[in-house]
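Supplementary notes for students who missed Thursday's class. We covered one full example, reproduced here. Read the sequence, then the structure, then the short commentary at the end.
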Amino acid sequence: MANHTKNKKQLEREARQEKATRLAYIGTLASGLAHEIRSPLNAMKLNLDLLREDLGAVDDTKRGDFSGRLSLIMREVDGLQELLTEFLAFAKPPAMELLPTDMNRLLEDVIQFVSPACEKRQIRIERDFQKQLYPIPLDQHQFGRGVILNLLTNAMEQIGEHGSIILRTHETHDFVEVSIEDNGGGVSAANEARIFEIFFSTKEHGTGLGLAIARRIVQEHGGELALENHPQRGATFIARLPKSKILELKDRK
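Structure (token representation):
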């Protein structure tokens, strides 16, 4: 039995090392690719700005059409830059800097950031926080922006206008959990199995990287990100962080 346990742990360790090596290689490729693409994109944007400054020289009868085409191209360039940035964040994430974190306070900081947009859309944010949570070692920037902000933005887009989002924190003997629940109609049954796939998006201009990045960040913190879906009603994303894994991360740091 002891040998079986040892072999299992060794296999898990080798699998983690193999995955880390593979991700490092992908990250190296992504960095090189990002550099090769970003340079011409920046040049394109600079030239588009110069063309916009020269709009006054365009014939009055063509200026409106010319301006519209410039705006369209500019949006496409901005979209490519956003996709490139998000892909790089997924393929080659920065090293984590773990700090003991009050999860409730971190959530409050993100809520404060998105509150103006929610008020504009008449979306109500409700809190259901458990007091005195275990102080989790987190990379506050990556988890706050890449997970919580990502999930809140996703919930807002699902709702559109006139809805509600509930943020909950909960601690059990083994886990600290954060959930974000919306009443935006949920995910269709056909898309539910693919919701965390890279480049899969149901949005017209979505990159398909937001939820994939959120799940990767949660997994790098030793946890898991799950979806509880209620088609036609809403969706709840739950980040579950096991205390045992958190302690291991803290010890390694």
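Commentary. The chain has two domains: 2-91, 99-252. DSSP finds seven helices and seven strands in the chain. If anything here is unclear, bring it to office hours.
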